[in-house]
From TrEMBL:
Top-level lineage group: Eukaryota
Annotated protein name in UniProt: Impact N-terminal domain-containing protein
Record-level GO cellular component terms: cytoplasm
UniProt-listed Pfam families: Impact_N
GO annotation (BP), single: regulation of translational initiation
Impact N-terminal domain ranges (all copies): 67-167
Record lineage: Eukaryota, Viridiplantae, Streptophyta, Embryophyta, Tracheophyta
Family named by the database record: Belongs to the IMPACT family.
Length: 248
């Protein structure tokens, strides 16, 4: 079903016009959770739906002692780079010998050896994330040196091993990305539209009456990508008219 964008000049809420896999809402099916660039409104039929992914439901940690060095791994779900830096600032220990880390945000990733020989800490931590099949997660491995050097191979096995063990011990959940949608609704049809939005489990529903059109409000909400077409197909006959759908 083709969807066109009305040529009428409308005032859209700023959060509908701008937004980045992190800035698109993504709500875990088993609990509360967490890119591309910003852009203007587009018709929903013009963009492909991102795939669901699996991530950690909550923070998890584990600790191992290897040749008198203590390795403490802490992993958590993250939504973007900012939340990754915030998580690192929260869990890193300035008293530790090294605070090494890696994170994965879709196709975006970063890792850091924090003073360990290049490629012996951050990279094996990232490899553990990839092997786990999880996405949108960060792992920080904190090392307290015990006096015995592990060597390059020993460091790789230690950091990668404790990171992998930590992730295996976490509770995971499936995340279905959501899209931010805006629809123009005449006042007299708000009740009908809200009934359908509730049926399709739309979230973050807001109204903006400053549309420049008398008797019409812009209703914005987030809904799972795979429900958008069905929602439109339900709203139009319920309202007995064509309701324009706008997507960021």
């Amino acid at each position: 079903m083709a969807v066109r964008i009305s040529p009428l000049r409308l005032r859209f809420p700023s959060f509908l016009v701008t937004a980045s896999r992190s800035q698109e809402a993504a709500t875990p099916c088993c609990g509360s959770g967490g890119g591309g660039g910003g852009g203007g409104l587009t018709a929903r039929a013009m963009s492909s739906a991102p795939s669901p992914y699996t991530t950690l439901k909550e923070r998890v940690s584990c600790e191992r002692e290897i040749k008198k060095s203590k390795f403490l791994a802490v992993a958590a779900p993250i939504s973007d780079e900012r939340s990754a830096h915030s998580f690192l600032s929260e869990v890193r220990d300035p008293r530790a010998t090294h605070n090494c880390w890696a994170y994965k945000l879709g196709d975006q990733y970063r890792s850091n050896d924090d003073g360990e020989p290049s490629g012996t800490a951050g990279k094996p931590i990232y490899s553990a994330i990839v092997s786990s099949g999880l996405d949108m997660v960060m792992v920080v491995v904190i090392r307290y040196f015990g006096g015995i050097k592990l060597g390059t191979g020993g460091l790789v096995r230690a950091y990668g091993g404790v990171a992998s063990e930590c992730l295996k011990g976490g509770v995971t959940c499936l995340v279905k990305p959501k899209s931010l949608i805006g629809i123009e609704v005449p006042f007299e049809l708000l009740g009908t539209v809200y009934h359908q939005l509730q049926h399709f489990e739309a979230e973050d529903i807001k109204e903006d009456y400053d549309t420049g059109k008398e008797g019409v409000t812009m209703v914005t909400f987030r809904v799972e990508y795979d429900k958008i077409e069905s929602l439109e197909d339900a709203i139009n006959p319920a309202c007995s008219r064509k309701i324009e759908f706008y997507k960021r």
